[in-house]
């Protein structure tokens, strides 16, 4: 994974309003089919990771596990997950993986 490019895309995504944070927001976005890619911080707990994996598998949503701390470093927002809305940002991030 090209972490430098991914960090840049994540920052742009947040500024463009194409990202959703928080457990409830991410779960709603994935369940509604509006999420093109779910990004999880590497420091996420095992139970939370399992819940997200099961939800993504059920809905057919792509998911990626990032290095610990990369999510907060790139976006400036603490949290364990970021849902990227469907569109060009999610497509470009998938290419970085």
Entry keywords:
alpha+beta, four-stranded mixed β-sheet, 60s Ribosomal Protein L30, Chain: A, globular, 5 helices, 97 residues
Summarize the structure.
The chain is built from 5 helices and 4 strands, in the order H-E-H-E-H-E-H-E-H. With 97 residues, it is of the alpha+beta class.
Biggest sheet strand line-up:
1-4-2-3
Please report the total strand number as a whole number. Answer: 4
CATH topology: 60s Ribosomal Protein L30, Chain: A
Structural class: alpha+beta
Looking at the structure, what is the overall shape? globular
Work out the count of structural domains: 1
Average pLDDT, all residues: 94
- Helical region count? 5
What is the succession of H and E elements?
HEHEHEHEH
CA distance, first residue to last residue: 5 Å
Roughly what percent helix? 40-55%
Strand content: 15-25%
Q: If you had to describe this structure to a student in words, what would you say it looks like?
A:
The chain has 97 residues and is of the alpha+beta class. The chain has one domain (3-96): 2-Layer Sandwich (60s Ribosomal Protein L30, Chain: A). It is built from 5 helices and 4 strands; from the N terminus they run αβαβαβαβα. It has helices at residues 3-15, 23-31, 46-59, 70-75, 88-96; strands at residues 19-21, 35-40, 62-65, 81-85. A 4-stranded mixed β-sheet has the order 1-4-2-3, with helices on both faces. β2, α3 (46-59) and β3 form a beta-alpha-beta unit. The protein is globular and about 30 Å long. The termini are close together.
């Amino acid at each position: 994974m090209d972490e430098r490019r991914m960090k840049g895309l994540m920052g742009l995504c947040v500024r463009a309003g194409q990202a959703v944070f928080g457990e409830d927001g991410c779960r709603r976005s994935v369940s509604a089919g509006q999420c093109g890619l779910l990004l999880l911080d590497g420091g996420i707990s095992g139970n939370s990771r399992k819940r997200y994996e099961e939800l993504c598998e059920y809905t057919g949503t792509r998911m990626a596990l990032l290095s610990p701390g990369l999510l907060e470093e790139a976006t400036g927002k603490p949290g364990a997950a970021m849902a990227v809305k469907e569109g060009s940002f999610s497509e470009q991030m998938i290419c970085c993986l």
